[in-house]
Amino acid sequence: MKKIYRINCGSTEAYTDENGNIWSADQGFSESKTVMREKTLPIHNTTAPEVYLSERYGMERYTLPVESGTYTIRLHFAETFGCNYQPGSRSFGATVNGKQIVENFDPFTASGGFARPVIIETTGCTARDEIEIKFTKGSAINGIEVFEAADETPETVRQITPVTPPEETFIGKRQDAAPEAKTLKILFIGNSMTFYWAIPESLQAMLEIGTRNLRIEPHRSLHGGKGLAYHYNETNALDLIQHGGFDFVVLQPGSTDQLDPQEGMVGYMKKFDRAIKASGAKTMLYAHPMFLKTTDGERRKMMDVFIDLSERIDLLIIPVCETLRLCYAERPDVIWHDADTIHMGMHGGYAVACTFYAALTGGADFPPPAVLVQQVEIDPDLAAFIQQKARQAVEAQPAIHLFEKQKDD
Predict the structure, then answer these.
(1) What's the average model confidence in pLDDT over 185-210?
(2) Is beta strand 156-159 parallel, antiparallel or unpaired with respect to 92-96?
(3) Can you give the pTM of this predicted structure?
């Protein structure tokens, strides 16, 4: 088939894939936004991985001029948003010149997992002077290909990529819990600093692989961009604490809370802590590492604030801020933050999960290195470095040792 368009959606540069095919910079789109994923994110089952590292989302349409004729169109998708760790995270539709191509479409479900391409092909598409691809709300796309086709080509729509079975997307093997295993019911209160890379569920999966003696049942009260004041005054967090029967409640301050700790963080931390202790639970403080631009000195200062607070009101610190400070200090060559410079990238997300794991287990051996509920593999050598820094950060906080080091039979 003669290629008419091969578009790398969301990218401002052309790209040559492993087969020598040239993908052009993005074109033909309506008003929308783009995002670039980190280059180290592993994309599976493709010879054109960079196509799936750029994305255009929120567009109403693509309009591509063509000569009158019959065409085959391929739409390329992959779920690469670090919050979307399970089926059902998206749902949108698309038409090509008025013909329904996908409906209630979720790239995660269609491909079988995270960062796994799915290609939808439609054949026999007739056009006079343009191909118009329309999308419904919530859409995101990575690539578009348009080829000339014979006039007699039948009209079809099919997925030309396989669906990966669940057992191939999960890294590691879950162990049965020991008869004497503890199961901790934990409520996570916070914002996107907690739900990026699915930290609660990633920790749960790590424990199910790495130890037989400890399990968690994670629950969420997470609202993007919100601090502790919002959670205390505007959500049902207090009701959850009072009636949820939790063993621990993790409090993740908002970024503005940490920038102004005396006014934003300390007051509401005390209020939450009183409610948590009254319910019979214990409070954990998730000391998150702030932004890409945050300096070493600022992270040190923030940890001093956290330590002082923990001593005054008896909090358990999860010292992620210190873990990332150590990581940045010794491995500035690694991409720790997301391209948005605010949230953690895949390696930073792994550092967060490792710090929680080290704190809960007292430094037990780590499971096979992966993040996002064991779906995104981390380089073993880099993972060993991150694990070491997580242990180092935890061991420097004597109050954090909830349990002795877990030893399995």
Answers:
(1) 97
(2) unpaired
(3) 0.94
